[in-house]
Amino acid sequence: MSGGADVRPSLLLANLGGIDEVLALARVAEEAGATRAWLTETNGPDALVAAAALASRTTLEVGTAVVSAATRTPPVLAMAAADLAHLSGRPVHLGLGAGGQVVVEAWHGLDLAGSVARIDDALTIVRQALDGGRTDHVGSQWRSRGFRLSSPPATPVRLYVGGMGPRMLELAAARADGLITSWMGVEGVAARAAALHAAAAAAGRAPGSVRLLARAYVAVTDDPAPVREAVRAELVEYLVSPPYGRAFAALGWGDEVDGAEGAFARGDREAATASVSDALLDDMLIAGPAGTCRRRLAELRAAGADEVLVQPVPHARAGDPSGTVRACFGG
């Protein structure tokens, strides 16, 4: 493992409802001993607005895991990151990803093509701005010249790439402070850690300079069956999404991907859900008593994750976010 990360996991706030729920769960985590919270973004809350609220109202370090590099320009991202650093007085962690096809193309009316180059351009421009200089970059997806922050951050802003494919891994290894992965069990994390470290070495990066962050979907419960069935249905949405489907197939779940895609194309949602095998569910979901969940989180660390991001299964999927947070961070 690299980076000298703390053993204690971090909190990932995702799919919880409104900003009030996000803030409330962050306070529960803070009281339980968490030191860092990450936010993701789909259709609300706005991750950077929520991060600003956490930065000004809690002692938590804040980060995004992730926001799309397509829906905000790099200068806007740089301004937001600098403001978060000023509000908190602590390091800030800015994770950038492609954004899903529905989010980028259907909702925002933008083009998802060129995502790797877009994130690469954003990393360059954001870093130029955060370092206090004027931007000077013309890329294939983003260009910026002459922008300069009025007040650069005094605390570090670390930049991460979020993604599951090999090109995102290579980009993170060459250009970022770390890679954020999702939907991976122990074997997937171990393989990703080895690939990331090899790619970083090939790019001339110092050992330990590129960190692997693994998202973990967690529900602490004495009755995991309802959670498992709710998450089984949720996983279908990822299996039939082409980028995620390719990533799942590369991890050895090709039969599940083919089954879900075929059933979904026929309009048979029940069969698509049934294609999510128990083995896949066991790998992607951590659900059970507190001791079991803590053990499996530790296994992800041992497999090569420098930091594990605990994403509590929400109430909408039969989870107990507050109970999960207390069990994972209060032990």
TrEMBL record:
Signal peptide: none annotated. The keyword ATP-binding does not apply. One of its GO terms (molecular function) is oxidoreductase activity, acting on paired donors, with incorporation or reduction of molecular oxygen. The keyword Oxidoreductase applies. Keywords: Oxidoreductase. It holds the Pfam family Bac_luciferase. InterPro entries: F420-G6PD/mer, Luciferase-like_dom, Luciferase-like_sf. Residues 18-307 form the Luciferase-like domain. This is LLM class flavin-dependent oxidoreductase.
